[in-house]
Structure of M28 family peptidase:
Amino acid sequence: MKYKLSLILLLLTSATFAQDSTFARRMVDTLTSKQFWGRGYTNDGMGKAAAFIAHEFKSYGIKPMSGKGFMQPFSFNVNTFPGKMELVINGNTLIPGRDFIVGPESKGVAGKGDLFQKDSVTFIEGQKRIVLTLKDKLTWSVSQQVADYTSIEIDKKALKEVPINVSVNIENKFVEAFEANNVCGLVKGTVKPDSVIIITAHYDHLGGMGKETYFPGANDNASGVSLLLSLAKYYAAHPQPYTMAFICFAGEEAGILGSKFFTENPLIPLNNVKFLVNTDLAGTGEDGITVVNATIYPKQFELLKQINAQGNYLVKVVPRGKAANSDHYWFTEKGVPAFFFYTMGGIKAYHDVFDVSKTLPLNKYNSLFKLMNGFVTALQQ
C-alpha cells in the first residue's frame, strides 16, 4: 500500500480535532462507577455497560453495524462470586480486594481449620482443600471453569504473623452460557464505503468479588473505551472517505472471546477492512506507547511514527512484534492488518481494586486522539 502523506496538512487539521479531556474523564468516571460493578459478571455490570455504550453510539449518530441493532450477542462459561466473601486468618478479618483475592477458578467453601505450611509462602488446609499463597501484589482475573479446590492470595502486608488457622466463607456460582454482547456501529464512507477502518476497545473488566468489592478497571479499559467514544463522536460529525467502524468487545478478560466471536461471525466482510486500531490501557502515556504488530506492518508503523514526530505528540512510539494479548489478535490471524497500542508510564494499578478513575492521569488523552486521527487520515490517502 502506498501512502501520500502531507505532514503539514495533517498537523494543521488534527490540531483542531481533540475532544476536551473533560469528556474522557466523564466517560471513565461513569464506566468505573459502582452502577456498572466492574463491567463484569455479577449485578448485570457488563450488560449495563453495553447498553450505555449503545446509547452513546446512537446519540452521536452512529448507525448499527447489523440490521438487528448495535448488539452482537454471544455466550461463554464463567465462574463468578456473587455472594459471601469472608476470610479470617489467626482471628483477624481480612478485606476482600485489598487484603486478599480468591483464585478465579476456585470453588466455594465454608468452614475453618488449621493450616499446614508447605513452603515460605504457601499454606494448606487439607480437609477443605484450601490453598493460601502470600503475594507482594494481588492481581485478579477471570476463569471459564471451576477447580476442585479454593485458592486464596493474601497480600503479605496484611499479615503480622505466620498464618496458623483459617476461617472462610466464600460463595461461587458457575454460569454456563453467560450472555454477553459486542457493541458494533459505523459511519458510512462518503467516497469508498466498502473500504473500512475499524477502531476497537474492550469494555468488559473483572466485575465483582463478593457483595461489597468490585474492580473499577479505569485504565483497563475504561480509558480505551473513552478514546474510542471520542473518536466515534468526531467521525459521526465528520464522515470520512472510508467507512469508520467502532467495536467495543466483551469477554476480553476471559480470553479475548468477543473479538474471536466477531472474526468468526463478522458483521462486515473482513476483506473490506483496510486497517484496525485496537486501544487498551490508554490512560497514561508519559513514557509513550507500545505498538503491537509494528514489526508485522513496518510501512504503517513508519507512517505512525512520522505523524507522531511531526506533531510532537508522544515522547516515544515503541515497536513490538506479534502478540495474542488483546482483541487485535484474531483479526491479524484472519489477515486483517491491525495495530494494538497501549500507553506506558504513570500508575501501576492493574487488575486490582486500585485501578480507579481519580488516580488515572489521562494526561496524554488529547495527544492520543490527534495521533489516531492523523493516522486514520493518512491511511485514506
Q: What stands out?
A: Residues 87 and 168 are 5 Å apart (CA to CA). The chain is about 25% helix and 30% strand. The chain has two domains: 7-77+176-379, 84-170.
